[in-house]
C-alpha cells in the first residue's frame, strides 16, 4: 500500500492487472508532475497507430509513432526525449528523461539529423489527476509504484512494457506480470 510520501514525479505507475478503466488497462504511466495541486503523467505503452508526420504537417520527415498519453487534453501533443542538454526549455523528469521543450528547436534537431526517432516519444493527450485524487487511487490499490528507467521509455517494446516493469519489481510482482491479459473460465 502506497501513501502520499511514496508517490513523486519521475516514477512509473503501473495499473493493477484488473483495472476496468479501458484508458488505463495495463498502462505504464510516467508521472511527470505530482504535487498537492494534482498530477500529470503520460501512458508509455499505448500506440495510436499514427506517426508524428500524420499529426504535425510542418514536421520534418520523421519515422516516430504517436502514443496515447491519456484521456485528458487529447487535443495536445506532448513529448519526452533524452536530449535535454540540446533542447531548450526541457524539464528533467527523471534520470535520462526530459519532458517537452522548444518545439521549433526539436524540429531543427530532427532536420539536422541530431535526433533519431528512438530518442523521442510523442503523445496525444495525457493522464491527469486533481489534487489528492491519485493518493485516493493509491489507497484503493489501483496503481503499483515502480522506479522509472529511461530504457522503459526509449528501448522497451510498448506491448511488453507493463509486464516487464512488473516483473522487474520482483517477488509477488513477477507473478502479477505473468497473469494473462484476458482470462477465460472455460
Model description:
- The protein has 186 residues and is an alpha+beta fold.
- It has a single domain, classed as VC0467-like (3-Layer(aba) Sandwich).
- Helix content is 23%, strand content 32%.
- The chain contains 6 helices and 10 strands.
- The N terminus is likely disordered.
Looking at this protein, list some descriptive labels.
186 residues, alpha+beta, VC0467-like, 10-stranded mixed β-sheet, 6 helices, 10 strands
CATH homologous superfamily classification = VC0467-like
Question: What is the alpha-carbon Rg in Å?
Answer: 17 Å
Using the alpha-carbon principal axes, give the shape.
globular
- The share of residues in extended strands comes to 25-35%
What number of domains? 1
Helix/strand-derived class? alpha+beta
Question: How many strand elements?
Answer: 10
Mean pLDDT, all residues: 90
Distance between the termini: 33 Å
- Named CATH topology: VC0467-like
The description of the largest β-sheet is: 10 strands, mixed
Task: Please provide a brief summary of the model.
The chain has helices at residues 52-55, 103-111, 133-139, 150-154, 158-169, 172-177, and strands at residues 12-15, 28-35, 38-43, 47-51, 65-68, 72-81, 91-94, 97-99, 120-130, 143-146. It is of the alpha+beta class. It has a single domain (4-177), classed as 3-Layer(aba) Sandwich (VC0467-like).
